[in-house]
Write a structure and sequence with these properties.
The complex is a heterodimer of chains A (102) and B (165).
Chain A (H helix, E strand, L loop, with lengths): L5 H21 L3 H26 L3 H31 L13
Chain B lengths: L2 H20 L3 H21 L3 H26 L3 H6 L4 H21 L18 H8 L4 H22 L4
Helix pairs in contact in B: 1-2, 2-3
The chains are: A mainly alpha (102), B mainly alpha (165).
Chain lengths: 102, 165
Amino acid sequence: MGEITTGHYVALSVVLFFIGSVGVLGRKNAITVLMSVELMLNAVNLALLAFSRQWGNHAGQMLAFFVIAVAAVEAAVGLAILVAIFRLRETTNLDDMSTLNE
Amino acid sequence: MNPILFWLFAAIAVVSSLFVVTKRSPMANALALALVMTALAGLFAGLSAPFLFIIQILVYTGAVVVLIIFVIMLLNLRPEELKLQALQKGKFFASAVVALALTGLVLRLVSAEGSTPPAAVPASFGTVEAIADELFTTYLLPFEVVSFILLVGIIGAVVVAKRGE
């Protein structure tokens, strides 16, 4: 095990991002899809912090901070929409939420 | 960062993120997500970002995952509903293959070989003080915009989730 470089962090970030994308594309449960989106956002944050550390510049950390803030809002609003849909349809299955393309 | 710690956190993050996308029960997904967030917080600490380490634990593990768990318990999904939502084999494997291919491609671009460990940074790098200094000078406008977005989000979430008459 050699020293850990910025490349290691970015590689881990890429792996997590694509694992998250499988969840977004392949799952039918809306809550799980929302969680996978959060996973992808976090993977990007890891890359931002790795580059921030590489250049000794705070800009990446600031961007990651704003990403976290906006992701929290996105989760709150997304879950509120899910609750509203569940009241209406009694389902969290994305395949049952296709009124717009019928 | 200590290589052993890096590989430990990386393994926890990858394995539990696989649980997030493959486990059938949303509750298992949410608990695995909490584990991913915590492992990532550990990695953030190793990247000289103590402020974001705390924020990650507070906001993600403490707030977002707990909110998701609240909603899962609130919706009270029936087991037969969850069975219906089992992995759609074809769709899931197709996206997994595409993601695997793309991961391989991007990993070739960012391979760890040739990159060197970053130079040392001052001890104040990423501390609350250093972040606050920049946040309230250079990034004051984005900061105010984000606080407005948070306000809109709070009101929006209440309005959308409120029971209609």
